[in-house]
Structures are given as C-alpha cells and as structure tokens.
Amino acid sequence: MAAAEEQGPGLVPRWEVQTDGAGHWMPFDPTSSEAVEAAHELGQEEFSLTARGFAYRVNFKACEQTNTRTGTVRAIRRTLVPRPTHMWEVEADIGWVPFDMVQQEALEAALQRDQKQHEFERSGMGYEVDLAAFEQTNLGTGRVRLIRRSPLPATPAAASTSADPTGGGTASLSLPSSPQAPSWTEQPLGNGAFLLSFDAGDGSLSVVEDLHFTRITAEKDYDPTKLCSLTFEALGDDVVRLPCHTEAIPCYFKRDVITQALLTKNQCPHCGAFLPVPGPQPAGEMKAWLRPDISCDGYFDTGTWCIRYIFPSGRQNKRMLRPGEPYSGTTRSVFLPDCAEGRQALQLLKKAFSLGQLFVVGDSITTSLKNTVVWASIHQKTNLQGGANGHGWPDKGYFERLLSECAAKGIFPDEQEQPAEEATLPTTEPGAEGPKHSSGDDHVDQPLEEARAATTSSMLKKRKRAPTPAEGDVEDAAAAAAAISSPPLLLGASDVGLDLGHQDDEEGGEETGWRVV
Ligand SMILES: [Zn+2]
C-alpha cells in the first residue's frame, strides 16, 4: 500500500487473485498485498509469498501466481481501491485474525449503512455477524465468536504491529527503548496464556540509548592512544564502557566498533558476557495457551501448551538478510507438554521471542523460498507426535538441547522456573549439536541419551492417542470452520482456504544467514 500519494487521494494499490474462470477476483490479505506491491515497486520479476503454510511464486511479467506445492496457477492483477480506514477481526482460537478483504469491505459498508446484521458464506459455512453486539455466529454450529473493528493508521509504515515501544505490562526483560530499535509487549490472556508482540523497528541499535552502555571520558577514564583490541586503532574519544566491565577485566570499546560487533553476536568480545542485544527477528506475534484436553505423545494425562507464531509479510530492515527487499511471512504452531520442563521451555521460548532470537528472514532450505521467515537455530516441536524424527513428541533429549541452544544465544531459564532436578545447565555433549549457529543441519533432533531417561520412560508407560496437529490446532469442527472463515494470511484461492490441516513438517533450524549492518 505504499506510494499511495501517486495514485490519487485516498487510493491504494491492491493485489488480487482470480479464483475461477468466471472472472471472480479475490483480494490478497492486506499484508501480503503490501509485500507484493513492494516487490513490484522494486521492479522484481518474481516474488515468493507464504500464506498459511502455502508457498507461492508470484510472477509479475506473466501476472500470475503459482502454488509451489500444488502447481495451481492463477491470474493476479493490481487494482486501486480506497484506502481502508478500519481493520475487522474475529477472535479465533489463535487470537485475533483479520477477515478476508471481501468481508472487510462488506462489514465496513454494512456498518456505514447502519445495518444491524450482516450474513456471509465462506467455504460452505454460513455466518451471521451482529453489528451491535460485535459477534459472529456460525449458523451451522451455533458457535459465537467476538469480532472487533479497529482504526488503521494513516500511513502503512506504522501498521506492522501494535507494539508499545516503551514495553511494559508483566514484562520480565527490558529491551531497548529508542523508537527505531526492536521492542516488544506482552498481553496476559489469563490462565497463563499470553500474547507477545515483537516490533522489529528499523533495525537500529544505539548501545548508549538502547543498551545503556556508559560513555567514558578520554584521559580521565582511559588512555585514548591505547589500541582498540578489535581494530588495533587508537581508541580515540568516542568510547563506551560495557556493563560487564570490571577493574580486573576491563571492557570498553570504540562505540561504533562495539555496535557493529554486537550486531553479529550478542556477547562482549572481551569477557564473553551475554548482552541483551535484540536479534534480527521480523515483526510478529507469539501466542501461547494451555489445552488441558490434548497431550503430547508420551505425556499421558498432561495438557499441552500450544504456541502459535504469526509473522506477516513485510519489508526487510537494515539488520535483515536483504535490506529494503520484501519478505514473506509465515505461521507456525508448536507444542510443549504442560510439565515442569515444558513450562520452563515455554519461558525460554518467550524470552527468545522477546529478544528477537527465534526467527529470522532468510532463505528456506526446506521450501527453497527466498526472503522468507525461517527458524533461527532454536529447534521447536511442530508435532504432537512422531518422535524426534517427526519433529514431535516424545523426545527425551529435547529439553536438554533446547536449554543449550538457548544458552548459546545468551538465553537462560529464571532460577525459580527451573525444575528441581535441573539446577544447572546441561553441557552439550561433544559431537552433539553445537551451541553455535549450527544451521544447515538436518532438521532432525539428534538423540542425546541419559539424564532424563528415567523420567521420560516412566512417562512413556502409557500412551494416549493424541490428536493430530490439525485437530489439536483447533478445538472442534466448529472452531475449524470458523478459522477457515477468516484465515489471517489468506491468499484468495480456495486451495489456501482449506489449508488448516497443513502443518510444517520440519522442526526449526533452517539455514538462515542473516546479515548485519
Ligand atoms: Zn565484557
């Protein structure tokens, strides 16, 4: 939706896909449309787009999109439409998701006409929206869901997330506060559930404002003719002291040099202390909620923490792989058993997400998509079952590996969240997954024996047939239908609309190769 000014007042470009031979066009969801527009503006011939787990290749010359899995080719077009002023969303199990563009416009029009009710059909299901109560009723199942309408910012640049740059709430970590630096907010949802929003900002990092390093004074605090240990140039007069500094191990550096170094690795180059430098994760949301009624395989009678990550498409900031270029978003679901270790793992993932360390923009080995959101070398369980090889449960070595993968990024469990038997961090075995950015691995958990074998084997005694992730993803058929009725990142075509059953079949750890400024 950029460059609207050139298009005439109040008009914005919108991309649409032809859904059938009868000339029906369906608009892309707003974020996908914006990403496609950005690629188009840059004069790219092709663009890779992900929506609800499907990958598409958009070819601007041919004016068509290809579903890379099914091979379905559909015509696309660019139109100009009045700039939307409000966003309509429905509260699905995964959180608030936008209605598709057709319903966005229909709902807004109905409201303007003072209509009390609006009915529509989606994927064979009828729905009725009560515009006074702000509720949607599935006419087939009777399931009622809340809807909401919120104003859109006048400029799309500010639209990426609703994150409050000051952070806050029940936040347990503090992150940089300058407007351009990444930031995050947490919204508690009750019963331990939460919604985290991460705003990537423009990728700037000020070690003084964001990380609170201390500027120190030449001659008084240090010798400016002394050589910098990183560049072997004289320190000069723009020098900062790190919080890890001690008399015994002095840690101060030229400001620009340490800034550059920290964008590559969030550790003091001198003493190795971890520093809370946000990673290059794109803007997105992490929602976690407990499902007492489903179990990870091997955890009989134990509920499951469902975690849903939603990353809209967007434009890469200067810390990402190819700054300025658009990237395609993704949606991922992962699962943790509601046991002491699982809850600790959840806290670790929460911290990693807040610190921008869980995902990056990269090129996916699995899907061969370029410029897309991929895992950032912290493995997660995308299936309830299937064991280590199926990126699911049970997997007795998983918690140990998660701890060491997080530790490699400076993310540690809070003391009080540690399970009793987990007083110290496990050490990674030689030959096991290295703690470094060991990307390009096989996406398969490598079995690490020992430690929790006893615990796990007792859990393995009884197994209950856990629902498949597709089932686990939604509460019931009605919920599934409602979710289908309002897919958040839907690309028009019906083959996407029915994609609820699709699950990512790989665990995290794709090659990433994010770049630093
Ligand atoms: Zn240090």
Automatic annotation (TrEMBL):
Q: Which GO terms describe its biological process?
A: Notch signaling pathway; protein ubiquitination
Write down the SMART domains for this protein, in alphabetical order: WWE
Keyword Transcription in the entry? The reply is no
Task: Please give the organism.
Answer: Rhizochromulina marina
Q: Tell me its EC number(s), please.
A: 2.3.2.27
Q: Which GO terms describe its molecular function?
A: ubiquitin protein ligase activity; zinc ion binding
Q: Which residue range or ranges hold the WWE domain?
A: 1-78
Q: In which pathway does it act?
A: Protein modification; protein ubiquitination
- Designated name of the protein: RING-type E3 ubiquitin transferase
Spans annotated as Disordered: 153-184, 414-517
Q: Which domain of life is it from?
A: Eukaryota
Q: Which UniProt keywords apply?
A: Metal-binding, Notch signaling pathway, Repeat, Transferase
- What spans are recorded as compositionally biased (Low complexity)? 153-183
Reaction(s) catalysed by this chain, per the record, are: S-ubiquitinyl-[E2 ubiquitin-conjugating enzyme]-L-cysteine + [acceptor protein]-L-lysine = [E2 ubiquitin-conjugating enzyme]-L-cysteine + N(6)-ubiquitinyl-[acceptor protein]-L-lysine
Basic and acidic residues bias spans: 434-452
Q: Does the keyword field hold Repeat?
A: yes
